Amino acid sequence: MDLNGNEWTPIGMNEPFSGTFDGQGHVISNLTLTEAKTCYGLFSTVYYGVVQNLGVVDVNMNVPAESNMLRNGVLVSWLHNATIRNCYTTGNVTAAYGWAGLGGIVGGIASDAGSVSVIENCRSYVNIKSDLTDVTNCIGGIVGQIECYGGTAEIKNNAFSGTISGTGAGCLYGGIIGAGFDGNAKGNPVVSVENCFFNGEISFSGEESEAAQIGFVEGPVNNCYWRTDCKHPGAKIIAVDAVGNVTDGNSAWLKDSCQAVEDFQSQEFLDLLNKNAGKNLFIMGMDGPTLPIDVFHIAADYSKVDAAIAKAEALNQEDYKDFSAVEAAMTAVIRGKDITEQAEVDAMAQAIEDAITALEKKPAESVPGEPSETNPEDESQTSTPQTGDENHSNLWVVLMLLAAGGIALSVKSFHKKVQG
Fold it and tell me: 115 vs 89, which has greater pLDDT?
């Protein structure tokens, strides 16, 4: 569904959404939120609800300075004891106002005692920019900020490949999570991060700001991965004491299974993610492993195009009157299409095949002494015997003998007439 850039009013703006929204693999495009309002996202607040199987692409979200919303996310502004699964987002998010959280999927998460908020099997490519200059903020590729009050949020099987940048002082930037805090300040784990990876970029300029590839979390981080060329730590464990001061956390929460990855597009890395997930959840996409629902980042099949090109290249161009149409069809091939454009790719292959079928061969050149293809009547014409041809020499001998016999008969007949 194309929203055509019309200003969007988030679902659940007046009353939290508590049902199940199943996108069934459909895509919402051109979601636009640029006017001042109390919340930003496709959904405002999801409370004990579910959002799943949905793509939100080409987002334009610009939170103006006059806004008064604390949390901003592409899919959901505030997730409370709820679940988001099997979704993906693309586009641009810019915030000139905010205090708590800014995220590519969710702005903020809350989990109460006995309840769990979950974000699983999600992918984001959003470019997130915070223009805050004097406000502390938590900015993450998947979720901005997590506050738990006795419950534990679960962030698993997610990936972020976009960019994160900011100018605010004292901000926390994370490739997956901006920050996760224990709202009760009792040192309990507020979030578990499992089998996630970040292969995007983080840049910032504000004083006393920090960045981590996975995020600043109070809870276990296991089987998570980031780029080898990133200067920021993979994850930083933090805790909040009883009076709200940030302290050093339990470093044992960061598991040895977390590591930097050199090649995100290797089969080895794909197999590792699926092993961690316990099933074949990820497939190889155009920017590394992704999920089957993420159709705009799964490459189209070019096997028919490659086969047609190989067939054309095996031909000798000199054998044909005009090879230019085949060359033009091969030149017209555009690589890098995704599976939603498969019909276009197949049409490229067919264009090459059609150009090959339409080729006309040049006429064969005539060989001296042999009938010409262009003049079949030559076959009925008698050629003069040539010297040096053994068969032709024998023919000459026969002709001479016949001639000599004819002369002898003529002389004998003449003598008979004289004597008579």
Answer: 89
